Amino acid sequence: MQEDEYLSYSQHVRELIHFVNEVMATGERNEQSWIPFFEYGQEFGYLMGSRNMTLEMVLELGTMFHETIFTHIMRNYPLSHEEQEAFGRMLYLSAKINTYMNRMVLGFHAWQEAKINRMIVQERNQILEQLPFSVTIYDQEGRLQFANDLAIKSTKLTREEVIGMTRAELRVRDSRSQEPDGTWRKVMAGEPVKLRTEMTSEEDGLLLIEKEMIPLLDEAGAVTGSMTIVYPAVSEKERLYNLHKQFSFVLNSMNSGLLILNQDFSLTAYNKKAEEIFGLSAEQVLGTSVLELYQRYTEKDMSHSKLYSAMKRGLPIRSLEYSITLNGRGLTIRIDGNPIKNAHGVPVGYILIIDDQTELLAMREAMMRNEKFALIGQFAAGIAHEIRNPLTTVFGFLQLFASRSVQPDNFHDLTVKLLIPELDRANTILSDFLMVSRPQAPQRQLVDTQTFLIDVLRLVESESNLRGVMLEVDAPSDLPSLHLDVQQMKQVFLNLCKNAFDVTPPGGKLVLRVKVEASIVNFEVIDEGPGILAEDLSHIFEPFYTTKEHGTGLGLPISHRIIEGHGGMLTVRSTEGVGTIFVIGIPFAQ
């Protein structure tokens, strides 16, 4: 790491420790304030990737960083029973530091992806540079995007001058660029064009120049540009000999595995990198169909795979991932490929480029593990925060009782009115938490939907009258039956209606609307509250996320899990100042 980079990161660490001190001192949880730190952590991970550090080194650095922060916290903020709040803040900070570490790994991963993309471009350019003929690539507007050395040499300009020039400008520089009118329009319409032109050389006299213009297609088959190949003026035999010689050298210099298949999908070329990736020599595979090889070494049928389907139809392949086992070794590969077409555009073979993704997959799994640890930290922080209040009450009562400040005559009343409700609240929070983290499978049975809806209305009518909120029902009379766990679904409706009552002013209206669309019954709970802020809307189904002063933040996550267990969806739409609509969609058998 360079000196200026080290100084910048040291300053960043000091600022982060200062921010951690503020959180520990005030308890304020401003999520927006973490964003600059996370972004810097991702940039630093990218920087470490560019310095050729391994994933293990990045994870080790992240662990050291985590330990440094928490050693600082423990040294400066010792715990005692009067400072119970500090424990929750520490758990909160643990979750955030884990997220920070994940962003470092994400940045490192971004560098690896960028490195792979650069290697692909470099390998393509390397192949095209080594070919013994002129190669140019144009975009849809006819501007030059790439030219190998042989193509640039014929223009008598530098690479910087040539790139970006139009085809019309290049014709003035290179007599080999001449072509009949309408040729470019044919290529842009997806038609390959092969031309033969004559030119006179002072040294060699009359020469015959062969040129191919090949349309470049995207995954949807749309033309995105053109590749033009101009062959040197030599005999066909000499041209093929030079091509074979150069092509073999290029194949074995590539950092990706390359397979060339003929029309029957038998291997005709197989480079050294492919041998390293698969652990199979060229002698073992050349001349054999890829279908037979796949069956032989994986004991699986390839004829129904996406890879075989694309090759059979002559379609390009982009970033297709396969996980296979060869000779007891697990392997994850990424496959890119293009059909080989003749002069008439008919596929006569296929080129496959293979990249080993096994190490990259391991890096992704490491990042997912860190994300799980961060989630555990967030859950633990939420549980500690919610249970602390009832435990504090119980602890205070027991202290008073131990100091004989509570009269024996009052013990029974205080136990019934204070201790038992507080302990019951803690038990409810734990039960809700277990429902979110380890939900019970619904005990579903066929239920008359109309009867179920009537039962739900009976449950919420008294609360509606008590709150002074008008309850309106809009439902068709011929609702289809549903497979429901009645108790779980009633809990969902009670949670949503209670939230609606909490935000609807007296005299307002709560609407329960039922719609049948395709094979889904949609239950809508519509309130006339102030709506949900945009920054809160994306977090409302996260455990312990709440905007209520005394809310636990578990009602909506529990409801979401229950609906998912029924194979349905719980969605929300909200407009500030207008109200909120929660939609429960439950599928039914037609």
TrEMBL record:
EC numbers for this chain: 2.7.13.3
Pfam family, one: HATPase_c
Gene Ontology terms for molecular function: ATP binding
UniProt-listed InterPro entries: HATPase_C_sf, HATPase_dom, His_kinase_dom, HisK_dim/P_dom, HisK_dim/P_sf, PAS, PAS-like_dom_sf, PAS_4
Top EC category: transferase
Superkingdom of origin organism: Bacteria
Alphabetical keyword list: ATP-binding, Kinase, Nucleotide-binding, Phosphoprotein, Transferase, Two-component regulatory system
CDD domains: HATPase, HisKA, PAS
Residue ranges annotated for the PAS domain, each copy included: 126-164, 243-314
Domain Histidine kinase residues, every copy: 382-590
Reactions performed catalytically: ATP + protein L-histidine = ADP + protein N-phospho-L-histidine
Coiled-coil positions: none
Record protein name field: histidine kinase
Organism: Tumebacillus lipolyticus
